[in-house]
Amino acid sequence: MDDGFTVCLWFDGQAEEAAEYYTSIFPGSSIGKVGHYTEAGPGEPGSVLAVEFTANGQRFVALNGGPQFTFDEAISLQIFCEDQDEVDRYWETLTDGGEESVCGWLKDRFGLSWQVIPKGLMELVGDPDPEKAARATEAMLGMRKLDLAEIERAHAGVGVA
């Protein structure tokens, strides 16, 4: 992991657990090097400092940096899903121990924000027909987990008075 783009995620003693969790969710994921604190500190000598891992093709480092910083919604990871089954699977997995938010956003058990997005959503809410786009957007805004079929119905004006 010495070239390209890597996302560093800051944890308070949960780096190894988080890396194992994220690599268990996404096919083809793997854990790389695990670094440990030495006598130089600042962590307990021998405890995990950082874990390199790849999840869904993206490189990450999980760092046990301490309690000074926590995740918030200013950064989120997006998962673009092929179908509703994939949306449902990621949603259920990532909200287990976490919390649902709105418009396809959630926080996982570590407080990291995710957006679970079905394929085709951006075309519906970005339709050049402003009425169709508005109906699709309004439907999306009323949801927690995104339901593409329901957004498609709203986009088409089905069930709209």
Report low-confidence residues grouped into runs of 5 or more: none
> Could you give the distance between the termini?
55 Å
What is the CATH H-level superfamily of the largest domain?
2,3-Dihydroxybiphenyl 1,2-Dioxygenase, domain 1
Largest sheet: 4 strands, mixed
Mean pLDDT: 95
In the sheet with the most strands, the strands line up as 1-4-3-2
CATH-scheme architecture of the largest domain? Roll
What does it look like?
With 161 residues, the chain is α/β, with parallel strands linked by helices. The protein has 2 domains: 7-64, Signal recognition particle alu RNA binding heterodimer, srp9/1, CATH 3.30.720; 76-156, 2,3-Dihydroxybiphenyl 1,2-Dioxygenase, domain 1 (Roll), CATH 3.10.180. The chain has 5 helices and 8 strands, in the order βαββββαβββααα. The chain has a 4-stranded mixed sheet, with helices on one face. A 4-stranded mixed sheet has the order 5-8-7-6, with helices on one face. α4 (130-141) packs antiparallel against α5 (148-156). The mean pLDDT is 95.
